[in-house]
Design a protein that fits this description.
2 copies of one chain form a homodimer.
Chain A (H helix, E strand, L loop, with lengths): L20 H12 L4 E2 H11 L5 H14 L2 E5 L5 E5 L7 E5 L5 E6 H13 L3 E12 L1 H5 L10 H30 L3 H31 L10 E2 L9 H6 L6 H25 L4 H34 L5 H7 L2
The first copy, chain A, binds a DNA duplex through helix 1 and helix 3.
DNA sequence: CTAGGTGCAAATAATTTGCAGAGGC
DNA sequence: GCCTCTGCAAATTATTTGCACCTAG
């Protein structure tokens, strides 16, 4: 939850309003806090520094922050609102402990997808969704402190992004290795071998980056998952790799690869774009680019293959012509 | 949302409190309404009949209803609570229109499962979860009335239960038909054929019931989905049926069948148990029983097969012995 | 000088509570 | 008669607003 480096407030949408020491003071105190503050919590905090500040100003500043996109108003059903900063904080869901009233954040690409589906089925245009799981947290159940406190979300997010990227890379490596093995055409085999080599190299890079991340926070690995995504379990290429059996020819293998790379590229791009500037975002976007390159390579190769076959055989069937189009 | 037949209030947890005309009046008006009422809405409604009723009494009665389990307090982030009756109403999620402030209900077994997973991963004991999708509803976007109003949830729920049951039955029929085709042993083939016949018969029953349901509400089929469940799309046996290829022997086929029936039985039982008495609940529970019988039959057959093989061959391998245990 | 920021106190809005009277058992 | 329900008015809680004053640009 903590913000590793405070945002530059001067750069942060100063539109509409003149500089005011009070407002800046409130914003600074707010951003320095972690967790979900109620207006009252914030008033108390501010009054430690300066007890000549009015409740109304705090409310007004909170509203200003929400409008400026610095803060988000969240409702935990307590009969009052709480505020969380949105700077570097992606939209997320909450686990809310009814005993200690603390709340924990998580993100689930899977739940998001289902929510999207439900909305579509009902012809509903969703603008925002709330997922709140009420219950009892581990601490309140067992009485003991959980091993991992509120780690820096930034790092945890980067960790989860890297884990997904690594799983995808591993399944990609498996995929291209298999593809190279069953390839019939020398040229096709070369492509798959090259891609396998590239995946291997990239995998090493990602793993190094992961190790480097762990060094920055020794407990990082034991912190709970923040970003849930089922596709990560076996990697996004796992299904494709499974389909690569002896009977598959080069063209089919290319098509399966294209489908996997496309899915992967889309996932990483979509997620990368959603976040504020952060290490995790960077991981997502870099990976998306990587996948994009592979995708382009495969598509080029596929087209070349089809063209060669067109010269040899009669002509390519309409269906594969369609499939080769982006 | 409408209650087809009003519950018998006298039977409804009258514990703790004497009969009071005012309370009964309020409860009756509340239960007659559909949708999500705010305390104020209810006060207005009550005052149409009797304007000598105090706001405080309405609040007290609402609280009483929540305690008695007749009503649920829901928070749509408006800064005040709304109330919905829980009689015959399973816990559900909401789509909330920010324009017209209406809300629509849905249930998603899939989202529930993911929520459960997240909670488990975080060692969190969930007691309740809130899923709210905010946005714009179809009416507010297009301006025209949606074809289907607020249908009786009871009927829609029964419809969805039947749809899932039918899809499962269809995939079950497909599964047993295939299994009978590839069975090597005459006895195994007989079992699969019998089950296929049974599925066919049961399928006809379910379809008749579905048709009967449609007659009760001619628009029923066009009402939006209430219960979302991915497994329904192809039926719970679809995956199993796919695995039934030539290479599969009778023992393996039985195992796959057992796995499918078990999954199916569990799903229907779990869902059936969650709801208040209703047609949908009945559909779920009856189906669960049916699957349970099939499951038992398959398990018996599997054991018999293993025993026979044990006499013929050396001895059964440990792994299959384990698999045959419930 | 002037628009916007700030404090204070009063206003709202939803909901709860204290208390005295009313009514069922 | 007792115990609970009920109405009324006052209290509480979270938040907003009116208004006069203040301050940076």
């Amino acid at each position: 939850m903590a913000i590793s480096s405070l945002p530059d407030l001067r750069a942060l949408k100063p539109e509409g309003g003149k500089r005011s020491s009070k407002r800046e003071q409130i914003v600074n105190v707010f951003l320095r806090q972690e967790g979900h503050l109620s207006a009252d919590d914030l008033v108390d905090l501010i009054r430690r520094d300066d007890h000549r500040i009015s409740r109304a100003t705090v409310y007004r500043t909170l509203q200003w922050m929400v409008d400026a996109g610095i803060a988000r108003k969240v409702d935990f059903g307590e009969g009052r609102f709480r505020f969380e900063h949105s700077y570097r904080q992606p939209r997320h869901f909450h686990l809310i402990c009814k005993t200690c009233h603390r709340s924990y954040e998580f993100l689930s690409s899977d739940i998001e997808a289902l929510v999207e589906e439900v909305a579509t089925a009902r012809n509903f245009s969703p603008s925002q969704s709330v997922v709140q799981i009420y219950g009892t947290c581990e601490e309140c159940k067992t009485g003991k402190q959980p091993a991992t406190g509120d780690g820096h979300t930034d790092l945890v997010f980067a960790r989860d992004a890297l884990r997904i990227a690594i799983a995808t890379e591993r399944s990609g490596l498996e995929f291209y290795t298999r593809a190279a093995k069953i390839a019939r055409d020398a040229r096709g085999r070369k492509i798959f071998q090259d891609l396998a080599a590239e995946e291997k190299e990239h995998l090493a890079t990602l793993e190094a980056r992961y190790a480097e991340l762990l060094q920055r926070d020794p407990q990082l690995e034991s912190r709970p998952t923040f970003l849930f995504f089922k596709g990560a379990a076996n990697g996004l290429f796992a299904e494709g790799a499974e389909r690569l059996t002896k009977g598959v020819n080069d063209q089919q293998a290319l098509l399966i690869g294209i489908r996997c790379e496309r899915g992967s590229h889309r996932f990483f791009k979509k997620y990368g774009e959603r976040f504020e500037d952060s290490e995790g975002k960077q991981v997502f976007l870099e990976f998306a680019d990587e996948e994009r390159e592979h995708l382009d390579l495969l598509v080029r190769e596929y087209r070349a293959l089809v063209a060669r076959q067109g010269r040899t055989k009669r002509k390519r069937p309409a269906s594969t012509a369609r499939a080769s189009a982006r």
